[in-house]
């Protein structure tokens, strides 16, 4: 058993280049909590990118942005307090043990039951630090060696290339869309569910939203439709539509799909993610598209439930829902024949490397010839270059060739991030 002696916490507020829009809201900064764990004479440090808007829009909408981030940081601090003195044989034992108490604690801070994704988001740094400690004590130096036995059968890929999925949020210009197409992008993640400026949730608001979404897709399609790519099965740039639960009814979704069909873009739709909020539980299995679960899937049980509702793909976010939970999720998804991909949370470069390792072992989507991963932090953080300097030597997160990351043998043979030593230690020395 490995015993945790000390668990420390600090945080950094990272500004964004411009307001970052999704889920009908906008972010201007992303807080990075940083956890330092000491166990059995070994120390590991990991950051966590907090995204209150993504993980629980109710918290984001009911509290000022800074207050929401402080609440999530308080949950992380509570987890650190709980972990001190605990012992474990494998890190994935600990998250289920502390979640119930953290849920109660978050209720005391907000006055309501927060989404489980909010809690998991708060625990990412804790979880990765625990895995790093575990690997150092066990002498594990590669990510594939770290994968638990129960998940190994679902993570047998060894991609030589990972197509980079850029995020095309509301604020991304059409000039930038063209640049992405010209530089080899094969799969674009397009945010839909546009803010209309009307009364939120009203009939007029929703009607305007659908119209704006169709126009947005039409504008993007007009720019990229003649581009080709060797990375997809049909040779065309594919679209990954992320609604973040903004659609309220099946008829509203059908209006969007009819608009896409009228554009002649139906064969471009690789994924439609979370059109409805999780509580609506609308069956999507009858549509001729692959629907992807993200915020509605934060456990093995959720994955199975989404599959029952017709979802055929799951967004794995080890950098947002913890590695520990993601290992169980990929096992459940692959046992049911579900597709998977590693999506981003506009995370820092350090977490982007962990996500890349997970994606390299995950099977490719049916529309893709290669693996894929979403990374968009370089387009959104003011201090991306400085943040890259905190990653252990040997990694260059943003370099790619023709829309994909080339994964060489050394990528698989060692993983410096496992060592627990990185530039984030300086923030503890400064405290």
Kindly describe this structure:
- By secondary structure, the protein is α/β, with parallel strands linked by helices.
- It folds into two domains: 2-146, Enolase-like, domain 1 (2-Layer Sandwich), CATH 3.30.390; 149-414, Enolase-like C-terminal domain (TIM Barrel, Alpha-Beta Barrel), CATH 3.20.20.120.
- It is 40% helix and 20% strand.
- The protein contains 16 helices and 14 strands.
- The chain has a seven-stranded parallel beta sheet with strand order 6-7-8-9-10-11-12. Strands 3-2-1-4 form a four-stranded antiparallel beta sheet.
- The radius of gyration is 21 Å and the shape is globular.
- 52% of the residues are buried.
- Class of secondary structure makeup: alpha/beta
The domain count comes to 2
Helix and strand pattern: EEEHHHEHHHHEEHEHEHEEHEHEHEHEHH
Number of helices: 16
Anisotropy-based shape: globular
What is the beta-strand fraction? 15-25%
Radius of gyration: 21 Å
Total E-strand runs: 14
Strand order of the largest sheet: 6-7-8-9-10-11-12
Helix content: 40-55%
Main sheet properties = 7 strands, parallel
End-to-end CA span: 31 Å
Question: Which spans have pLDDT < 50 for at least 5 consecutive residues?
Answer: none
Can you tell me the CATH architecture of the largest domain? Alpha-Beta Barrel
CATH class of the largest domain: Alpha Beta
């Amino acid at each position: 058993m490995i015993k945790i002696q000390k668990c420390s916490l600090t945080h950094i507020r990272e500004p964004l280049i411009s307001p970052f829009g999704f889920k009908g809201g906008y972010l201007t900064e992303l807080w990075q909590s940083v956890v330092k764990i000491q166990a059995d004479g070994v120390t590991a440090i990991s950051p966590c990118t907090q995204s209150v808007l993504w993980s629980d829009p109710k918290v984001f909408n009911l509290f000022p942005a800074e207050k929401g981030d402080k609440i999530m940081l308080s949950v992380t601090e509570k987890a650190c307090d709980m972990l001190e003195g605990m012992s474990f044989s494998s890190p994935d034992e600990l998250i289920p043990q502390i979640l119930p108490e953290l849920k109660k604690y978050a209720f005391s801070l907000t006055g309501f039951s927060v989404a489980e994704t909010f809690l998991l988001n708060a625990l990412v740094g804790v979880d990765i630090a625990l895995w790093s400690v575990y690997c150092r004590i066990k002498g594990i130096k590669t990510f594939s060696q770290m994968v638990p036995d129960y998940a190994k059968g679902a993570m047998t890929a060894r991609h030589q290339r990972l197509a980079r999925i850029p995020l095309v949020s509301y604020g991304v210009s059409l000039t930038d869309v063209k640049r992405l197409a010209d530089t080899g992008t094969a799969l674009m993640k397009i945010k839909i569910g546009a803010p209309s400026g009307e009364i939120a949730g009203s009939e007029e608001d929703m009607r305007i939203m659908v119209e704006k979404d169709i126009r947005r897709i039409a504008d993007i399609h007009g720019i990229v439709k003649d581009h080709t790519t060797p990375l997809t099965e049909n040779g065309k740039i594919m679209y990954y539509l992320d609604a973040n639960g903004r659609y309220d009814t099946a008829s509203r979704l059908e209006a969007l799909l009819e608009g896409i069909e009228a554009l002649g873009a139906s064969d471009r739709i690789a994924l439609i993610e979370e059109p409805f909020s999780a509580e609506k539980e609308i069956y999507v299995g009858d549509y001729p598209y692959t629907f992807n679960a993200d915020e509605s899937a934060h456990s093995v049980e959720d994955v199975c439930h989404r599959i029952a509702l017709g979802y055929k793909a799951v967004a794995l976010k080890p950098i947002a829902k913890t590695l520990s939970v993601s290992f169980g999720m990929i096992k459940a998804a692959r046992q049911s024949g579900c597709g998977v991909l590693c999506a981003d949370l506009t995370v820092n470069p350090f977490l982007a490397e962990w996500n890349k390792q997970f994606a390299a072992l995950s099977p490719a989507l049916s529309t893709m010839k290669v693996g894929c991963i979403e990374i968009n932090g370089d387009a959104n953080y003011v201090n991306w270059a400085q943040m890259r300097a905190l990653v252990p030597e040997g990694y260059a997160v943003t370099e790619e060739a023709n829309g994909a990351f080339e994964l060489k043998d050394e990528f698989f043979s060692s993983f410096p991030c496992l060592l627990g030593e990185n530039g984030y230690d300086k923030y503890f020395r400064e405290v």
